[in-house]
Amino acid sequence: AHYIESVLMAEVDVAIDLHSGGSSLLYIPGTLARRHADPAKLETVLGLVRAFGAPMSYLMGPGGEDRSILAAADRAGITAMSAELGGAGMVTRDTLALTERGIASALRHLGVLPGKAEPHPVRVLEVVRGRHYVYSPEAGLFEPRAELGDAAKTGQLAGLVHFPDTPWREPTPVHFGGDGAVVCKRVPARVERGDCVYHLASDLRL
């Protein structure tokens, strides 16, 4: 991490970080970027995510994680975009095609490849860490009550944590802490306390 931030980033103008939700989370494919207060910086980032053309773009609100590549890029003074391209430990043909097309289009937008980028419609959303993440309060088996793309409301039941080792216990309910679209959900049923089970994002008015 130190080498990337202190050596590599000093040599570049733009950083693009591609990954997915790993084996435990499944995302609606989307790009991630920081929501800059400076309108010029924000427009630069939005130009890049629109050129990539994923169905959604999640802008991280103020006070986000400072150990991410987006935060490192901010400290280095360069433009950065990350991505959550699917997940659940899978590669799908649709997600792979989106990624290949998106990379080529982004590089054309930046002038690295010849040709003109063709921006695609992108739903721009905002992520606020405090209210848009849902975590399991206990270890057990998680029963989800919402699916990707659903519209969630504050206080709505997100799911139940069951206890197979003590089946006489009543399941513990888990609720959404804010309004937003369900853009990510947990895949394995088994959870530990603190595991992320849902991730929301709400439409951003630009």
Give a description of the structure:
- The protein has 206 residues and is an alpha+beta fold.
- Helix content is 24%, strand content 33%.
- It has 5 helices and 14 strands.
- Strands 1, 2, 3, 4, 5, 6, 7, 9, 12 and 14 form a 10-stranded mixed beta sheet that branches. The chain has a 4-stranded antiparallel beta sheet with strand order 11-10-8-13, with no helix packed on it.
- The radius of gyration is 18 Å and the shape is elongated.
- The two termini are 33 Å apart.
Top keywords for this entry?
alpha+beta, 5 helices, single chain, elongated, 4-stranded antiparallel sheet
* Residues in helices, as a percent range: 10-25%
In DSSP terms, counting alpha (H) and pi (I) runs of 4 or more, how many helices?
A: 5
SSE string, helix = H, strand = E?
HEEEHEHEHEHEEEEEEEE
The biggest beta sheet is recorded as: 10 strands, mixed
User: What is the count of β-strands?
Assistant: 14
SS class? alpha+beta
**Share in β-strands:** 25-35%
Low-confidence stretches: none
Topology:
Elements (H helix, E strand, L loop, with lengths): L1 H7 L5 E6 L5 E3 L2 E5 L4 H14 L3 E5 L8 H8 L2 E6 L8 H17 L13 E5 L1 H4 E3 L4 E5 L6 E2 L4 E6 L9 E4 L4 E7 L3 E2 L4 E8 L3
Parallel strand pairs: 1-5, 3-4, 4-6
Antiparallel strand pairs: 2-12, 3-5, 6-14, 7-14, 8-10, 8-13, 9-12, 10-11, 12-14
